[in-house]
Amino acid sequence: MGDTVRTNRTRDMVFFIIALGATFTGLLFLSVLIVDILMDGLGRIDLAFLTSFPSRKPERAGILSALVGTVWIMGLTALFSFPLGVGAAIYLEEYARKNWLSRLIEINIANLAGVPSIIYGLLGLSIFVRTLDLERSLLSGALTLTLLILPIIIISSREALRAIPFSIREASYAIGATRWQTIYKQVLPSAMPGILTGTILALSRAIGETAPLITIGALTYVAFLPETIFDPFTVLPIQIFNWVSRPQKAFAINAAGAIIVLLCIMLLLNSIAIYLRYRFQRRIRW
After folding, report:
1. Whole-prediction pTM value?
2. CATH architecture of the domain with range 47-285
């Protein structure tokens, strides 16, 4: 018995050391990458860089059109994906019967979450650009990214709804509430912190995607700002891809500056998610 306990403790310690080493290795490489990007691009970021259009001359090039296009794309993607994803999660978790059809839908949603992003780009090109004749517009890009992140939002929202104790539902039914009143007034507010976390993580993935947008025909050089959702566009990842593919060192510095701006936007999104989660948790507590 004593030898077995010592063996198990040794195995636990070995596993702990391996896991800790893997974690610190990832953090080390991430830190080196971030420091390298900051050293290259931090000095490039100024008001002119943020308010100028792309140019063939690296010292005059900016990210205005890509930055505005990114804001447009993310806003439209969130507008489409959040109600669709949460609505699908509510139906599958609260209304759908547990039969072969619902299980088939769940399996397909889980599989779609692991499909490469380029496949969604081809799907968006076929459906939105060609079949629906939406051209290479902001709307086509947002709908394509919506398809990309919708499975992630559905899965995370279902997990958040599933984590709510069934006793809350029973208590609501006991005082005469309908199923929808129970979901809207009790279950959904309690699950909202987890739903928001999953949604922001999905949007954080979408904001860095390049392949689907290049596939549907997003432009690499845009010297104007989109005015409607049917206008052509570019986004920061595509602008970064365009700059790093050029041989001049100055364009690589511009790309590093654009990466810093993109990271700041992602941090802002995650900060908003943390704030909203805190507000909902505080409201539930009281």
Report:
1. 0.85
2. Orthogonal Bundle (1.10)
